[in-house]
Design brief:
The chain is mainly beta. It is about 5% helix and about 45% strand. This is TonB-dependent receptor.
Length: about 800
């Protein structure tokens, strides 16, 4: 393990020093609204961590907690301490492809995410956007997690089982510059700087921040790289009369060599097996020049993305009890997913781009491992044969060893005339343009009714392509030239529109001891899809949610004790998969959008810095869209596989969560436990699911405990542990190679973390002000474990052969934060 130590200076100014907690009744609006008194801060943090004052399951991760974590940590990993959430990836900081998130049994594609109230969009790693690309963790002010379906009006096309809102800080009222400098294991490096202008006139203040992150992958020789450059600009103008205008712009440029999946059981013949070697995913580090081996080189796997995200928030006061909020936004992303294969994927017509004519079929493709391997016509087309003909001395086994088993389908030229070995850089091309607006009117009716009415509209244009480039010299490396493009096998073009409207009446009853929330939401989603090289024409669909009721109630017995209950119906737009595939032309017919009914109830108690909560829940996820594959072994590029989609059953999830927080003297203890029973409610024979099978990757038992010691204002030491129980990795027993295996379970694991913070004496820090040195160790005991299920990587028939991602090893971080 390599470890580099460095310095860091965090731009934490007023927002970081004075924003240690949130207002008791609601999350804070600005970074200067929070109380500075330590005792008051502790009380408020306790109340919000338990969700006090909310009529539904809710938790807040405070700025104090955020700043205790390693600098640059992926924002999604910050919510691992929230009851009901399960987070994992293959390293301690990030992991776009390997990132797994589960909330009460539902995954990250079924959980809504927003940044400052603006929808994040899809959280797919390839073609979607993870939240860490739209914000810098050092500018986070708080994170609000609703383990149910979120507040009324939360903008999302996928929030079936919860909602996560990331709130960034406002510019500070006083001018100042801050910085962070971090270093750690696997050559981790991070530099961050932020400058606050203070008041520059006309009620306006602003900040600008920039950061650079770099870390290497941990297995083998650390040949993979993850790099991220991020820039944020935010302005706030406060007008006379109570009006406010915020403008935010972010730019992110990242490139990432991620981790590959592996199997669990020692009997597996997959390239990497956890029980055989839990220290590797079997990707290679050294370049051999043999494409059959180098297709597993870590340098050939990864994604890159450039994103611009900008939005306005205009808050207009229309009277003493009326306010209008408008939030237009724009998000643009372009990126690539990299892959390397030991063959040339040739269209049989010899054309680079072959659009399907009306009434026609897509052009088939074949694989060529060596130059001049196949017989060709005078026009250059390849000729497949009905029987396999081998040259002398060549066997099917030798072809498989060469990394090109499909070559056995076609007649070969004599072996003596074979040319040089060929390889291809395959790029997935992604482009997204999202733009939309949210609007909300808030007003009061009399003394009891707080009303909200609003809407959301969003338009998205997206492209997903697949381009094939011949490697320049497979013996030397995976490099290619843009001029080496020889085939495009996907050119998928989407255009979608989402509209939503909602109305809420929050009613105060019994002299404000009780609160009743009544809300209605309606949503409509429409999309068109074109893919000229896969089919001719255009496909289209439109689905509506109907009226979705949301009801919540809160009753306060006194200042210390309250009970709540909520119920909501939720809606998810149809995924892209119903458009795609080789037989998806009619698959959308009869497919209904997925929905869920979420119910929870709970009890909260807090007095001063002490508090506890208990909540129970039930999720009924309906109309689950399942894939039906008619020929799972077919060549998708040759168009001899067929897929269709059906609504088959769903998922039921029920359980309870217990949370407690207390402080005595310099000690603070926070702990929670979550029990989650999530299972499939219907047999789906093709996928191999049986009624009652546990949901993949969703552990029944999760617990978190953290003990902090603060012997003085200058020092804080924290020890925590996160336990994740065993979770199903396959649906049920399955057979492979004549052997029948029992259902696989990801083993339970417990991770221990240690952190310490120390404010440097002024005599030591020189020109630095409020200098603070922090030290973190993630996975202190260096536990080897599986961080999650790669469900999208399982075999298609049946979907029972589990693929998993390694969890991150022991990792050290050191950070210096200071005003400069």
């Amino acid at each position: 393990m390599r470890m580099t130590l460095g310095l860091l200076a965090t731009a934490a100014s007023l927002a970081c020093a004075g924003a240690r907690a949130q207002a008791p009744a609601a999350p804070p609006a600005t970074s200067s609204d929070a109380p500075a008194d330590a005792a008051t801060s502790t009380i408020v943090v306790t109340a919000k961590a338990l969700g006090k004052g909310e009529a539904r399951a809710n938790s807040v991760v405070s700025i104090e907690t955020i700043q205790d974590q390693p600098a640059g940590l992926d924002p999604l990993k910050l919510v691992a301490r929230v009851p009901g959430l399960q987070v994992g990836s293959s390293d301690s900081l990030t992991g776009s492809f390997s990132m797994r998130l589960s909330m009460r049994g539902l995954n990250k594609e079924q959980i809504g995410v927003s940044i400052d109230g603006i929808p994040n969009g899809s959280t797919l790693s390839n073609g979607g956007t993870m939240p860490n690309r739209l914000l810098d963790p050092s500018n986070l002010f708080w994170i609000e997690v609703s383990q149910t379906a979120g507040d009324i009006g939360t903008p999302s096309n996928q929030a079936l089982g919860g909602f996560i809102e990331f709130k960034t800080r406002d510019p500070a009222r006083q001018a100042g510059a801050l910085a962070e400098l971090s270093a750690g294991s696997y050559d981790y490096q991070r530099q961050f700087v932020r400058y606050d202008t203070g008041d520059i006139g006309f009620g306006t203040r602003a900040f600008f921040s920039a950061s650079h992150n770099y870390v290497e992958t941990w297995p083998g020789e650390h040949s993979g790289r993850s790099r991220r450059d991020h820039f944020d600009l935010k302005t706030l103008t406060e007008f006379a009369g109570g009006h406010k205008l915020r403008w935010t712009a972010s730019y992110n440029n990242m490139a990432d060599n991620d981790y590959d999946a592996l199997a669990l059981r020692a009997a597996s013949t997959f390239k990497a097996v956890f029980e055989k070697n839990p220290n590797t995913d079997a990707l290679t580090d050294a370049w051999t020049g043999n494409p059959a081996i180098d297709q597993n080189n870590r340098r050939t796997r990864g994604i890159a993305s450039r994103e611009l995200f900008t939005h306005l928030n205009a808050s207009i006061k229309l009277g003493d009890t009326t306010r209008l909020e408008l939030k237009p936004y724009l998000h643009r992303q372009e990126g690539e997913g990299n892959f390397y294969v030991p063959y040339k994927q040739l269209p049989v017509d010899g054309q680079l781009y072959s659009a399907v004519p009306p009434g026609g079929r897509p052009v088939a493709t074949v694989q060529e491992c060596y130059a001049n391997q196949y017989a060709r016509t005078a026009s250059g087309a390849l000729i497949p044969t009905s029987a396999v003909v081998f040259p002398a001395g060549v066997t099917a086994a030798s072809l498989a060893a060469a990394g090109c088993p499909a070559a056995a389908r076609f007649q070969m030229n004599p072996q003596a005339s074979w040319g040089a070995r060929e390889a291809t850089a395959r790029l997935g091309i992604y482009y997204t343009r999202r733009h939309g607006a949210l609007g909300e009117l808030q007003w009061r009716l009399g003394e009891r009714h707080a009303m909200r009415a609003g809407g959301w509209v969003e338009k998205i244009e997206r492209t997903k392509g697949r381009n094939w480039y011949l490697a320049t010299d497979p013996k030397a490396g995976p490099d290619f030239e843009a001029s080496a493009l020889y085939s495009t096998t996907q050119d998928r073009q989407y255009a979608s529109t989402t509209t939503m409207a909602y109305l809420q009446d929050k009613i105060s009853l019994l002299d404000e001891a009780a609160e009743l929330d009544l809300g209605l939401t309606a949503q409509r989603f429409s999309e068109t899809y074109r893919s000229p090289v896969e089919f001719n024409g255009q496909r289209a669909l439109a689905v509506s949610s109907g009226v979705l009721p949301k009801v919540a109630a809160l009753y306060r017995f006194n200042d210390d004790l309250e009970v709540f209950a909520s119920a909501s119906k939720n809606f998810s737009a149809l995924p892209d998969s119903v458009f795609e595939g080789t037989a998806a032309v009619g698959s959308k017919k009869g497919v209904e959008p997925e929905t869920s009914v979420n119910v929870d109830a709970g009890l909260r108690w807090s007095r001063g810095p002490h508090g506890a909560s208990f909540q129970v829940y039930s999720i009924d996820y309906r109309n689950r869209i399942s894939i039906q594959n008619g020929n799972p072994d077919g060549d998708i590029f040759g168009r001899d596989a067929t897929t269709s989609f059906l609504n088959q059953g769903g998922i039921r999830s029920k359980g309870f969560e217990v949370t407690g927080r207390t402080q005595w003297g310099p000690w603070t203890l926070y702990a929670n436990y979550a029990f989650n029973d999530a299972y499939y409610v219907e047999d789906t024979a093709f996928e191999g699911i049986r009624k009652g099978d546990p949901v993949l990757g969703a552990a029944r038992h999760n617990a978190f405990v953290e003990l902090a010691l603060k012997p003085s204002d200058a020092t804080r030491v924290t020890l925590n542990a996160k336990h994740v129980g065993k979770a199903a990795g396959t649906y049920h027993e399955y057979s492979s190679g004549g052997v029948t295996y029992a259902r696989e379970y990801l083993p339970a694991y417990t991770l221990v973390g240690l952190s310490a913070k120390w404010k440097l004496p002024r005599a030591w820090s020189g020109p630095l002000k409020q200098a603070e040195l922090s030290f973190n160790v993630d996975n202190l005991t260096d536990k080897r474990y599986l961080g999650g299920v790669g469900m999208e990587l399982t075999t298609s028939n049946p979907l029972t052969s589990g693929r998993y991602f390694l969890g991150g090893p022991r990792t050290f971080f050191v950070t210096l934060r200071a005003e400069i």
